[in-house]
Amino acid sequence: MRAKILVVDDCKETREIIGELFSRQNAKVAVAEDGMECLKKVEEFSPDVIILDLMMPGMDGLEVMEEMKAMGKMPTIIVLSARQGMESTVKAMKLGAFDYITKPFELSHLRDTVRKALRINYLKKKQDKFEDIESLGDTFVGNSPQIREIYKQIGIITRTDNSSSVLITGESGTGKELVARIIHENSRPDKPFVVIDCNLIPENLLESELFGYEKGAFTGADSPRAGKFEMAHNGTIFLDEIGDMTPYLQQKLLRVLQNREFERIGGRKTLHTNARFIFATNKDIRKLVDEKRFREDLFYRINVFHIHLPPLRERDGDTKLLIHHFIKQFTTRFGLKRILLSPEAERMLLEYDYPGNVRELEHIIERAVGLAKEGIILPEHLPDMPQKPRINRKTTLQKVDKKLLIQILKRHNGNITHSARELGMYRQSLQRIIKRYNIDPQRFRKAS
After folding, report:
1. Residue 430: which residues within 8 A CB-CB, separation 6 or more?
2. Are the C-beta atoms of 93 and 154 separated by less than 8 Å?
3. How many angstroms separate the Cα of 138 from the Cα of each of 34, 100, 376?
4. What pLDDT is attached to residue 446?
5. What stretches in the chain show pLDDT beneath 50?
6. How far, in Å, CA of 387 to CA of 401, rounded?
7. Peptide bond preceding 386: is omega within 30 degrees of 0, i.e. cis?
8. What is the rounded (10 degree) CA torsion for 139, 144, 148, 150?
9. Residue 144: alpha-carbon gap to chain centroid
10. Helix%, strand%, coil% for the chain, nearest 5
11. How far apart (Å, rounded) are the C-alpha atoms in residues 99 and 118?
């Protein structure tokens, strides 16, 4: 049976180009130039996939999706938009979009996305109605491709309020707890969000913190106390640094995840929890499993959904965005009128690697705004920050030093495209140099 595709865009040229692409793929194609016509075509044409422009006069793409949900007509939807921010991406994904493609885009990418969408079209008919996401733009900032993918994942995870576990990995300071809070706020906002750091609490105390205890359970237990599992009932519990949990507590946690039940220490009554469990670690948890330091069966339980947060140095273009975001944030917090950033200070901030990631950048800007007495951030307001080696943009193949090349590949996690950009050359040229020096970029890639 031929696939039926509806193309919705207020630009005639876009409709024609996309329509011709899929007509050549032997699909039945219909077009609509606005939201109202789209809704009419949904009734008449019953498309398998809708390619939906977000920005249209009158009824926009998000409103069209909301209306289709109300009608009970929800095919697989691929959103097209020039917007690259978090709020629209997450909102579209949470409303049930299969993917969010930013303009301009490659037709081959759209074609491949539609092919994938057609294979899972039947899943979209089971989607529920979801609420809008509010004011996320001020809490998690980034427009890099890596972060836009995370927006999509958050939308998918929060589109149904179920109890599936989420594992968030990434270096310290990348925002793991922030992502956990966003997931909670957009799935169980009126319920408790309970946080516990498995790395900061000794094993004997961690057990009582998690499970609670009855009076007389141990010396000093003068009265019963509810644990974090009870406190988080129907809400979300965020267990940070799960990789540091001892084998004994791993076993007890596994039972909670399997059966959704537990007892307080010293208690006999079985308690139940309907909390969503979100876990985080900055360790290579797969390596811990291989080394028998983390239970494999527990790993599969916590890794139902997995979000990996890249370090700031790998987020193309996000550093500058975050710098100005934090300047605005702390200017408001400190009650200042306006704080400017000098070109020299901006260059220093952009050329630093941030081993402490977004958290480190935030603290640096907070300090700089506080010190900027004349209303402008100068280099002397910044801490000592080792700078990346500055590369001449006219670097030739013969002048690339092997040691420098290895250093740059390490900095970019073995990514040839990003390394070539820093060197100011074409990717193919850099590949020839890598081959000449017999370097394997794969060895610089870090395990997720």
Report:
1. 416, 419, 420, 423
2. yes
3. 31, 21, 23
4. 67
5. 122-137, 390-398, 448
6. 18
7. no
8. -70
9. 11
10. 45, 15, 40
11. 12
CA angle 126, 185, 90 (to 5 degrees): 55
For residue 123, what pLDDT is reported? 35
Does CATH place domain 161-309 in 3.40.50.300? yes
Q: Which residues pair with 197 in a beta bridge?
A: 240
**Which two tokens mark 7?**
């193309």
Output the pLDDT for position 414.
87
Domain chopping of the chain, boundaries: 4-147, 161-309, 312-381, 397-444
Tokens 């079209």 correspond to 121
Cis peptide leading into 104, omega within 30 of 0? yes
Domains 4-147 and 161-309 share a fold: yes
Per-residue tokens: 412: 């970019």
E strand spans, 310-371: 340-341
CA 76, CA 6: separation in Å to the nearest integer? 10
Give the per-residue pLDDT at 394: 42
The confidence score (pLDDT) of residue 121 equals 55
d(CA 42, CA 68): 9
Please give the full DSSP string across 226-249, using - where no structure is assigned.
E-HHHHTTTSEEEEE-GGG--HHH
The predicted pLDDT at position 128 comes to 29
* Structure token digits, residue 125: 């008919």
Q: From residue 283, how far is each of 250, 290, 442 by CA, in Å? A: 16, 13, 20
CATH code 1.10.260.40 for 4-147: no
* Record: fold of 312-381: Helicase, Ruva Protein; domain 3 (1.10.8)
Q: What are phi and psi of 49, to 5 degrees?
A: -135, 135
Task: Tell me the C-alpha to C-alpha distance, in Å, between residue 119 and each of 8, 95, 96, 98, 115.
Answer: 21, 19, 16, 11, 7
CA pair distance 209, 202, nearest whole angstrom: 10
Residues 6+ apart with CB under 8 A from 20: none
- DSSP string covering 173-225: TS-HHHHHHHHHHTTSTTS-EEEEETTTS-HHHHHHHHHEE-TTSSTT--S-E
10 Å CB burial of residue 281 (0-12, 13-18, 19+) is buried
Cβ within 8 Å of residue 17, ≥6 positions away: 107
Q: Read off the tokens for 77.
A: 């939807």
In this structure, which amino acid lies at residue 299?
F
Q: Which amino acid is at 401?
A: D
